[in-house]
Write a structure and sequence with these properties.
With about 350 residues, the protein is mainly alpha-helical. It has 6 helices and no strands. The chain has a domain of about 140 residues: Helix Hairpins, CATH 1.10.287.1700.
Length: about 350
């Protein structure tokens, strides 16, 4: 995400405040006052605004035109006194200039050479600070883009995590439903088994009863001549019991078939429950992986924020070093004496200034 540029009105307002405070207005002082922006652009906006402003002229004070006559004798004495004072003052000025020149000439050269050296060092520091701030701005923009990308990735991971959690909840619900159906089938199987056991007991009882009837039949046949009517009744009773045995055998066969079918359904339900549990395990593993990725993305975002804060502090220290260099240069300028040089001294001063400008 690119930073919004500082408006021209804001730059002009801060430049006027710096000028009113008696400080020099340039790109780095504007950046220090605003807190952001490229120094070359800030200085360009301020320079264009100065060009649009006309430089006013200070009106000159009118000279008085009044005239008062002076007596000739007083005028001659005044003229002679003025000549004497001018000659004396010229001698004093020449002596003062000569002494000042001899005293401060060597000191001026040393201080000027030291000032040039410090200015060169300040220029190097300013260039290094400009490069550092430009690099810091570029790295800050890159880190902000990377942070935005990580935030977007984190949002997508969270959406995927929400979908997986919903799927997990649905799978758990299906698993609980399958478990309930399995329990119901187990109950039904147990009921059918009980019915089959009851049928088997009834069949065994009928068979035992049939065996007893057969014994009685043999006894009745031995006594056939004495109990023909009893034999006929017993045969009818045996026939009834045999019908009951056939019916009980059929019921037992049906119960066994139903028990087998219930056992098959229970096995299928168990397989479905096992598949649901395996899907649940896979979903939980996917959720753990996505959670780990989300944690790593958040840790990387915090690390990028820390780097951005460190780069901002480095830029602020560079600006503080540049302001200190400017203050040191202003203090050195204040140490240079502002005496009125003689023509020869003025000529040397002009040469030094031309050399300073070339530097």
């Amino acid at each position: 995400m690119a930073k919004a540029q500082v408006s021209d009105d804001r730059i002009i307002e801060e430049g006027r405040r710096i000028a009113e405070a008696g400080r020099k207005v340039h790109g780095w002082s504007l950046r220090a006052a605003i807190g952001t922006g490229r120094p070359d652009r800030l200085e360009s906006v301020w320079t264009r605004w100065l060009e649009t402003q006309g430089e006013g002229k200070v009106p000159e004070n009118p000279e008085e035109t009044g005239h008062t006559s002076i007596p000739s004798r007083i005028s001659e004495a005044l003229t002679e006194t003025k000549r004497t004072m001018e000659a004396h003052l010229d001698g004093l000025v020449l002596s003062l200039v000569r002494v000042t020149t001899e005293t401060y000439d060597g000191r001026y050269r040393d201080e000027f050479a030291d000032l040039q050296r410090k200015r060169a060092e300040a220029d190097e520091q300013l260039s290094a600070a400009s490069s550092a701030v430009a690099d810091a701005d570029n790295k800050a923009e890159a880190l902000e883009k990377e942070r935005d990308q990580l935030v977007s990735d984190l949002a997508q991971v969270r959406e995927s995590l929400a979908v997986l959690q919903a799927n997990l909840s649905r799978t758990e619900s299906e698993r609980d439903k399958a478990s309930t159906e399995r329990d119901e089938l187990a109950g039904r199987i147990d009921g059918e088994r009980d019915a089959a056991q009851a049928a088997k007991g009834a069949l065994a009882e009928a068979r035992a009863h049939s065996a007893a009837m057969s014994n009685e039949l043999r006894t009745a046949r031995e006594n056939l001549t004495a109990a023909a009517k009893l034999e006929s009744d017993l045969r009818n009773e045996i026939a009834d019991y045999e019908k009951q045995a056939v019916d009980l055998h059929a019921r037992l066969t049906s119960a066994s078939a139903r028990a087998s079918e219930a056992e098959t359904q229970r096995t299928a339900q168990s397989q479905r429950a096992e598949a649901a549990e395996a899907a649940t395990v896979r979903l939980e593993a996917s959720i753990g992986t996505l959670t780990s990725r989300a944690d790593k993305a958040e840790a990387s975002l915090e690390e990028l924020s820390t780097k951005l804060a460190a780069m901002t502090r480095r830029a602020e220290r560079a600006e503080g070093a540049q302001d200190a260099a400017e203050k040191a240069m202003e203090a050195l300028r204040g140490l240079i004496p502002q005496a009125a040089p003689m023509p020869a001294l003025r000529k040397r001063t002009a040469k030094s200034e031309s050399g300073n400008g070339a530097t």
